[in-house]
Amino acid sequence: MKYDVVVIGGGQAGLAAGYYLRRAGLDFVILDNQTHAGGSWQDYWPSLHLFSPAEYSRLPGWPMPPWPNGFPSASHVVDYLRVYEKKYELPVRRPVEVTSVHRVEDGYRIDTDGASYSAAAVINATGTWSRPFWPSYPGMRDFGGIQLHAADYRSPDVFAGRRVGIVGGGNSAAQILAEISTVAETLWFTNREPRFLPDDVDGRVLFDVASDRARALAAGDTDTGGVAGLGDIVMVPPVKQARDRGVLQARPMFTTITADGVTDGHTTEKLDAIVWCTGFRPALRHLGPLHLSNDRIALDRWHVRDEPRVVFLGYGDWTGLASATLIGVGRTARAAVEELARILTQNEER
Questions:
Q1: DSSP reduced 3-state for 265
Q2: What phi and psi, each to the nearest 5 degrees, are found at residue 83?
Q3: Using an 8 Å Cβ cutoff, are 17 and 126 in contact?
Q4: How far is residue 70's CA from residue 67's CA, in Å, rounded to a whole number?
Q5: 281 Cβ contact partners less than 8 Å away, ≥ 6 residues apart
Q6: pLDDT, tens digit, for every residue of 34-54?
Q7: Do the bridges between strand 307-312 and strand 303-304 make them parallel or antiparallel, or are there none, so unpaired?
Q8: Are the CB atoms for 45 and 157 separated by under 8 Å?
Q9: 146-149 and 273-276 as β-strands: parallel, antiparallel, unpaired?
Q10: Taking Cα atoms as reference points, which of 262, 267, 197, 271 lies closest to residue 236?
Q11: Cα–Cα distance for residue pair 31/126, rounded to 1 Å
Q12: 8-state DSSP, 230
């Protein structure tokens, strides 16, 4: 099976790529390891909501249907992605697990748990959700309570009546703490003081700031400030409520885990559970045979440096400002596919 482009990953980034690949007239297929459409959104905890209204959370071509109250839920996003995929008749094959990508004479061979595919170019849109990051602390294996990563969190019920440590200074930590603190005593541990956005700042403002920053960078301005100056944590309603209850009080990070708690060498806290909201890393193991880098793969915008027919989409600022968001990924997908189409056309003319 030979294609112009094989897209690895059928979540929001893969679908955005598919939309523009079709418009470019390229022959492509999208390989997705999920059993159903909806990307990683179908694996998030049920209470998760977007940071923006539906009209600010759209892929190219078709707006997300309205959400009646507040910001859309994760399940609403899943429904939108499933309908989007059908609406544009995107050629997604699932469940297909890509095991490796190899260079061949005329492009790339993509091996899976079933068939192999050949392509002149590869768009990698595997995201990060399948690769949660666990930091290493002395005593982790000795802890007698519950330990789980945010990737495995679903409900606060299992923590009811317990004393729970939440680790991490980002949105996931704040939102999970807000929920667990309604049924349990929580202690929040962060490496630095959390930075909260103003109450009236949501995803709309963040996208506008990212857009302004992108224009400034394109114009040659290297000191744009960016979103970081605003803060890190969006004050969605549950987080505001947690603040009003007085539970958003972060404390310095511990250094050691004991059998029944944590310590920084001076203060010891007993805990029944630890929830690690410590982020994710790009899921790139299948690209190992390409030997792209021993560390972080160097990109020129979204193309792998010195290998322009391998494109990364949807990994946040690494692959384009706001490219890990629904509305932001369309912007980078369009530019990346246009450039990829130009490269493939040049190769054909040689």
A1: coil
A2: -70, -40
A3: no
A4: 7
A5: 128, 131, 133
A6: 999 999 999 999 999 888 888
A7: antiparallel
A8: no
A9: parallel
A10: 197
A11: 10
A12: T
